[in-house]
Amino acid sequence: xxxxxxxxxxQTAAEYGPRTFYTRTWCDYPPFNIYIFWVFGLLAKSLSxxxxxxxxxxxxxxxxxxxxxxxxxxxxxxxxRLDFKMALLAAGLYALNPAVVFNAAVWGQFDAIYxxxxxxxxMLSLASxxxxxxxxxxxxxxxKPQSIALLPLIAYLILRKHSLRRFFTSLAAAAAxxxxxxLPFEWSNPVTFLSGIYLGAYSGYGYTSINAFNTWAxxxxxxxxEGFFIxxxxxxxxxxxxxxxxxxxxxxxxxxxxxxxxxxxxxFGFFMLPTRIHERYLFPAISALALMFPxxxxxxxxxxVLTATLLANTAYVLYWLNVxxxxxxxxxxxLTGDPVTVTVSLINVVTFIYTxxxxxxxxxxEAWLKISPIGIGKRVEAEVEDNVRE
Length: 390
What we know:
Number of strands: 2
Distance between the termini: 47 Å
Radius of gyration: 21 Å
Number of domains: 2
Shape: globular
Largest sheet: 2 strands, parallel
Strand order of the largest sheet: 1-2
Strand content: under 5%
Number of helices: 16
Order of helices and strands: HHHHHHHHHHHEHEHHHH
């Protein structure tokens, strides 16, 4: 189903460019994606690939390239702190992760692109480059709206590390980025142009869970979320506040590793708590876990478990989507009560509770994050060895 949409969007962008793209076709993807559709649509057109099977390889090329770019970021981050082998291991754990490979190479989804920008924004904020962090973050927002999950952390890190003046210069950089991206498009009011895209897409999925095997899935998929929509966002708001509170109280002791763990928690919480969540929204959590893998023993268990649940969720949903499409149905499956749905959802819920307990232990000063604050460019081999022995 998504493949047909991507084909139409690539061809429309290649034919007409970004200027009138949204007036010529239905598309619920934010503006930055259109440039990708345009460039790679022109590539497919130049190679005369329209209408043949090879076109799908061009469509899957952008997310695969961004996955490689994210793996490079992970390698760079770890290499600044550990040796080459550990950096290569961390990068490989992301690039060769079966759930990551499935998302881009098999399904051809675009989650890799906004994930790259969010990882870059996190690294830049930790490296005390707030304006560049804001630019990277808003490129993520202009790619996928679920980037909103990381906003509290990026804002906190900028405020924590810098003056209020730098915070406002970061906001200015973000505003300039948004304006530069949407300037080539046809619009009379930038606010209504963007809100129409974001809110239009979001309001079209008024259900508790859109095939996401999360907390809401235990009560059923595709259940109208009237009465639950506000509750879901209240839960996520409380959860985010607690996560940032723990980070604020313990940042001096646990430092950057806790900040990365907070990013992971926000990604995980966004998948588990709000309504209208799709099966792929757990995807960015894998990047945070790969970043922590060389430093933190507990991250290895989480990496294994959530890789398995994300892969099971996406592969199972795609399988049934293809079955229904092959049968000629104009709608997708409702997997409510399916044994796989219930089992994977329960594993995710138990894992989420476990991560909340880890945050609670950190707040109480039990310091399961055994590494002292990581300074940019400093090596921490000794601390990692101590952590692995725990």
